[in-house]
What does this fold into?
Amino acid sequence: MKQRKKQSPGGERVLISFDYALKRLLRNKSNYDVLEGFLSELLMTDISVKNIGESESNKEHATDKSNRVDILVEDESGEIMLIELQFNIELDYLQRMLYGTSKAITERMVHGTEYMEVKKVYSINIVYFNLGQGEDYVYHGKTHFTGLHKKDELQLSEEQRKVFKKEVAGDIYPEYYILKVNNFDDRTKDQLDEWIYFFKHNAVKDEFKAKGLDKAREILDRDKLTPEEQKAYDAALWERSKKVSDVASSKEVGRTEGIEIGRKIGREEGRIEREKLVKELEKREEREKELLAELTRLKQNKQNNKNMFE
It folds into this structure.
């Protein structure tokens, strides 16, 4: 008897989480079309993946490597897509995005290489914490060169357009995408939203039509894992959750300790200020006594002089 596929109550197929899939399944060439689908929906153009590897920037961030995924995708045109998933809160994450794109460019340049060989880089960041301050769940940033006087955008010359296959100067520079998964309200308005729904819930609704999700349903179906693979998967999710919790807890402890240290510093600074104020008041009182004594002496001298002439 053929066993029916396990689905969640809302007609959703339960899948392996995207970060786990990136680490273990999606780097296989036969599964490239899953990533091609996601990238095509995000960048709104057909992407054909040539190669997938781990970004060298991982070597610079070994401390949180277990709780983030960082891969580098090269498409058939040589452009680079740097994909990062991050679960832990990082105050300097925006700077790390900048570092990652710079690293992706420079590590591919060797001495003597012409600058025209610099490849376009897309920094794609799937984050599960509140990065920055904003209510949207998808942010896109790119470089614009705008005239200070004419307010026009700097275009490329005809020759540059032919060589670089771009229209404006800013198109040559890195572009950044931030997907704030936890901000997504679960209402899928387009096919990119269907992917974000998957990132948030590890599930795909039956009616989803986004490019790449059909293959995701096929190869990321949790029920297709062997008992040993399911055990390893559950352990990996538990470990990730524990690390997120531990980091959040340590940050909260640090924040609490910081507040208490601040209070102690404030109390100590207050004590020092009070002592300084007391000393200033004592000096003022001494000075007032000296002035009063001097005034008394002058009055006495004046009286003595008056008595001499009477």
Remarks:
- Residues 1-7, 60-66 have pLDDT under 50 and may be disordered.
